[in-house]
Write a structure and sequence with these properties.
binds fe (ii) ion; 12 strands; 2 domains; five-stranded mixed beta sheet; Nucleotidyltransferase, domain 5; alpha/beta
Length: 321
Amino acid sequence: MGIESTAHTFGVGIVDSSGNVLANELDMYRPTSGGIHPREAAQHHAAVAHTVLGRALKRSGVGPEMIDAVAFSYGPGLGPCLRTGATLARALALRLGRPLISVNHGVAHIEIGKLFTGFVDPVVLYVAGGNTLVTTLHEGRYRVLGETLDIAAGNCLDVFGIKAGLGPMPAPEARARKGKTFYSMPYNVKGMDVSFSGLLTAAERLIAEGRPVEDVALSVTEVVYAMLTEVLERAVALTQKKEVLLVGGLARSGRLQEMVREMVRVHGAEFRPIPDEYLGDNGAMIAWTGLKMFQHGQVTPVEESVVRPKLRIDDTEVRWL
Ligand code: FE2
């Protein structure tokens, strides 16, 4: 069983050792205005935990006694949200008398992507509301080849969409399809890293000037995806790896997938999308990664099961392939 609670999603997933997802239930906190309020999100998670857990057990058809281990996201994420999930995970592990496993949320996004694509050693672009990085496995860890220097790509597009009156993704991308004029925008790729805050400011300025929102949406989405595809392309060229994986909520973008597919073709590599349900935050990815860790002896004593809001993807040793 895996418990996810790093940000707006509270999820419980149950998988078996053959890689079948038996249950993947979730409930999302939706702020009435603005971004995620960490304490409100944590209160949401605590309020829905019982129901989501019950739904997952019912859907899976397994009784609590058949759960072999309890995994949870211990970071990166929002402190209050992480602590809510961790508390439930510890209580369940103690109650069931089963091992507890602390899972790195970023690693879990990649592992569930590998499960659904059959990829073994991909170059990965992990793009979401809170994370943007290019990574690949090297000597037992997912190494960061490139990342955002300021805000995440998903955050840039969500904030733009909200300020432009469209709402968060996928609304900006839907509106971009009606755009006709492309405005020149700040394009900030620095080595393997990217920066989106200047782009967001420029987009907000164009909206304030009264430019057509569909044209600004077109310009900002195209530039964000082009920057991401460029750094991903460098990673593919550098590593010469032939599998390319997109994970995280923003990987649902049809336009980003299109750009990546085109780039990957040029390099004789392969890109395979994974189902939308497993791109955003979910409990199944925590369960699946927890299972791999469990099989390799990476369990966490309850008294050491702290949360790590600033955990990095390369903090976790990957003992499996
Ligand atoms: Fe995530």
